[in-house]
Amino acid sequence: MTDLELIFSMLGEASTTEIVKTQNPIGFTENKKAAKRGGDIAGNARKELEQSTGKKVVTGGNFLDIKKNKKLK
Question: Which of 30, 62, 64, 67 is the most buried (most CB within 10 A)?
Fold first, then answer.
């Protein structure tokens, strides 16, 4: 995982945490909405950076091809 991938992941998690702390959602549905908003914040920031730099943030570098790396018996 690249530094930027990690940063945007952390931004989504931190944003979600702050939303939960301030809005005190109750139950799965409300918490799911808070998580979606936190993810949207990070996603929008990522898209804005990609637009400004012309480079993608998300890479395939951390992708693990299970079929290639695991022998099935």
Answer: 30
State the pTM of this model.
0.80
- Distances 20 to 28, 32, 42 between C-alpha atoms, Å: 12, 10, 16
Range of the domain at 62: 3-69
Structural domain count of the chain: 1
Alpha-helical runs (H) found in the chain: 3-23, 27-53, 66-69
- Show the tokens assigned to 40: 């949207």
**Residue appearing with tokens 């908003």:** 37
CA dihedral over 72, 60, 4, 44, signed as positive or negative: negative
- What's the pLDDT at 29? 97
Helix (H, G, I), strand (E, B) or coil at 61: coil
